[in-house]
Design goal:
By secondary structure, the protein is mainly α. It has twelve helices and four strands; from the N terminus they run βααβαααααββααααα. The N and C termini lie far apart (67 Å).
Length: 327
């Protein structure tokens, strides 16, 4: 078929004889695990948190993180790939949204920003307990979620702006110049990775230091506003979210560094089509939204018990996620 003669009436041409590799099958299994696992988190947290304490800030943020991870996994499900699409509205939508998995990226960034918000929330709850309790009563989570998803959409608008197709009906990205591509790469690196990383690193470290100071009795005045039970709850949550942060860092760093170097022009234009890049993206996408339910199960006994009760059809009790028992 000639590119010159490719018109609106031409059919969509599927890529035939697609080769699947081991990482594709692993990714598919992890997608299923992510969908099931995060669905359990949403179900259990909605019942436990809401029934016992009316839905505390931490509980709502956990649910928000699970929703973002669930949607990330859902939109990352492999779809039919086309080598050529007609220059129609449907073709434009495919090249700007479906082919680059824009919706999965939006949801993944919402997950990153929700995790960042959780780190900030943990720090404020530990360092400024009295002010935090007063501030949290106003239901700031709705406002936070609005900003999180708005930012996630805005940062991924580049797929709509630069997504295009050539005369053959093949999807591609068109940057106005090499300089604009470099600026775009640095922008994404800062707002997708480096900025959230710095915020989470600082707040998690400060939370751990504050908890250590409380345990040593170095802040008597502050300790009066943070009971030992509250300290135990905060310590468990801080440990759990620190592990989630470390997982995020390990899985997300290689992809982001390589993508930055690629946009700076150091790597070849074909890098995004290599096996190495595909493995890095799948690791960042799928494992990040798969690990959290397992981390909840390890660090939170009540979640583990309730998940087991649900799987064995014994019902869901009214035990809040952050109870302090260690069984």
């Amino acid at each position: 078929m000639s590119c010159v003669n490719f018109t609106n009436e031409e059919p969509w041409i599927l890529i035939e004889n697609i080769s699947y590799f081991w990482y594709d099958y692993v990714a598919f299994v992890l997608i299923v695990i992510a969908i099931v696992g995060n669905s359990f988190v949403i179900l259990i947290q909605s019942r436990l948190g809401g029934a016992r304490v009316g839905g505390k800030s931490a509980n709502r943020l956990i649910i928000g993180l699970a929703v973002a991870d669930l949607l990330t996994a859902f939109f990352y499900i492999p779809l039919p790939e086309y080598v050529n699409v007609p220059p129609t509205t449907a073709g434009e939508f495919y090249c700007r949204v479906i082919e680059p998995k824009s919706l999965a990226w939006v949801c993944f960034m919402a997950s990153v920003y929700t995790l960042t918000t959780i780190s900030i929330e943990r720090y404020l709850a530990i360092a400024y307990p009295y002010s935090y309790r007063t501030w949290a009563k106003h239901g700031y989570e709705k406002f936070a979620f609005s900003l999180i998803w708005l930012a996630a959409v805005l940062i991924n608008l580049f797929t709509f702006l630069f997504g295009d197709m050539d005369e053959c009906g093949r999807c591609l990205f068109n940057f106005p110049s090499l300089r604009s591509r470099k600026v775009f790469g640095v922008f994404l690196f800062i707002f997708e990775y480096f900025g959230p990383l710095c915020i989470m690193s600082y707040t998690n470290l400060q939370s751990i230091l504050k908890l250590r100071q409380y345990s040593l009795g170095l802040h008597v005045a502050s300790k009066a506003t943070l009971s030992q039970d509250a300290q135990a709850i905060h310590r468990r949550l801080t440990t759990m979210f620190t592990v989630i942060f470390v997982t995020f860092f390990v899985l997300w760093t290689p992809d982001q560094i390589c993508f930055l170097v690629y946009n700076l022009g150091v790597l070849s234009d074909n890098f995004t089509k290599t096996v190495a890049y595909k493995v890095l993206v799948k690791a960042a996408f799928v494992n990040a939204c798969t690990m959290n339910p397992f981390i909840y199960s390890v660090w939170v006994p009540s979640f583990r018990r309730q998940a087991t009760a649900y799987l064995t059809c014994r019902g869901i009790g009214n035990i809040y996620l952050t109870d302090t028992d260690t069984r």
